[in-house]
Design a protein that fits this description.
Glutathione S-transferase Yfyf (Class Pi), Chain A, domain 2, 2 domains, alpha+beta, Glutaredoxin, 7% strand, 4-stranded mixed β-sheet, single chain
Length: 203
């Protein structure tokens, strides 16, 4: 199988970590979505990454779909629980962490526009989502060893990818000081080989 993505993409990183944790070998192909000659739309009509190209040529897109597929490919160490209630709890964590990322990406996109074209109201709205999301992630984690249940799961992976991307793209947001429990959890996750191997590049 082949994975189209970028090193800095937190959604691509989530897929790469899941594959590494499940010991699934993926051929990682670096792509530039914004390049005029990008091949991404041929595999995903939405023009987004990551994209997983299966051995039969079919494609899967959206990181949430891809990680669920990969978790089912191998019986080794399920990252998404089979129990329905626990499963929904883990997917809720993923949705919240991804939602913080969505808001952050929208902020970056808006800030890349000419200053005269930027909307202060739009930036404030997305910033509010990001800040509320971080607060909720910290509240939900509390002093637990893991995000959901008693074991490492996709919830922890999603949170780690979210925090890692924020450190890369929004270094002025001091979430470590504001939410020390998130900082402790991220540091613990960073010790895992799958996290270290997929760490985003330094600014």
């Amino acid at each position: 199988m082949k994975l189209l993505g970028s090193v800095a993409s937190p959604y691509t990183r989530k897929v790469r970590i899941v594959a590494a944790e499940k010991h699934i070998d993926l051929k990682f192909i670096l792509v530039e979505v914004s390049a005029p000659d990008t091949e991404v739309p041929k595999s995903n009509p939405l023009g987004k990454i990551p994209v997983l190209i299966l051995e039969d040529g079919h494609t899967l897109f959206d990181s949430r779909v891809i990680v669920e597929f990969l978790d089912g490919v191998s019986p080794l160490g399920h990252l998404i629980p089979e129990d329905k209630r626990h499963r929904i709890a883990v997917k809720r964590w993923e949705a919240l962490a991804d939602g913080v990322l969505d808001a952050g990406i929208l902020i970056r996109n808006e800030q890349s526009r000419e200053p005269a074209l930027q909307s202060a109201a739009w930036l404030a709205r997305q910033t509010g989502k990001l800040e509320r999301g971080l607060s909720e992630l910290a509240r939900e984690l509390g002093d637990q060893a893991w995000c959901s249940g008693q074991a490492y799961s996709l919830a922890d992976i999603a949170l780690g990818c979210c925090l890692g991307w924020l450190s890369l793209r929004f270094p002025h947001i001091d979430w470590r000081t504001q939410y020390p429990n998130l900082a402790r959890h991220y540091d613990k996750l960073s010790e895992r080989p799958a996290f270290a191997e997929t760490a985003p590049p330094k600014p």
